[in-house]
Specification:
This protein has helices spanning 11-19, 35-49, 65-68, 97-110, 119-129, and strands spanning 24-30, 54-60, 78-83, 86-92. It is of the alpha+beta class and 132 residues long.
């Protein structure tokens, strides 16, 4: 599966993928002006292509402010990993392919929920699943 975005052309596919309670969803918070994010995008696409059992979302914190606005992002890339709507991980990651791939695989295998996640992080799957 390709990396999903909130663009109108992929909005329905995004909503369906994120709403699936059996799937792992990995969200990368980035920004168009961020050089690290621009370099990380191809890496993220490769990681997603190798993991068809998971959904991968690219969320621009400015272009997608209506969805990502309340999530506090301190550095890029910041990742959020969910099992269905349950937050498993939220934090900054090194933009290295092996590091991100291992992180995704570890949380996909363990599916242990975060303890006391930020409210905005908990609300994000619902916002992503909204088709409008």
């Amino acid at each position: 599966m390709a990396v999903l975005t909130t663009a109108p052309a992929t909005r329905v596919a995004l909503a369906e993928a994120v709403a699936d309670p059996a799937r792992i969803t990995v969200v990368a918070f980035c920004a168009a002006w961020c050089d690290t994010c621009a370099q990380f995008r191809a890496t993220y696409e490769r990681i997603a292509a190798a993991r068809s059992q998971a959904s991968f979302v690219w969320l621009d914190i400015e272009d997608d402010e209506a969805v990502a606005g309340d999530v506090e992002v301190e550095n890029f890339p910041t990742l959020a990993i969910y099992h269905g709507a349950v937050p498993l991980f939220f934090g900054i990651s090194l933009p290295h392919e092996l590091t991100v791939a291992r992180l995704c695989d570890a949380y996909a295998a363990s599916r242990v929920p975060m303890t006391d996640p930020p409210a905005a992080v908990s609300a994000l799957p619902g916002l992503l699943a909204a088709k409008g």
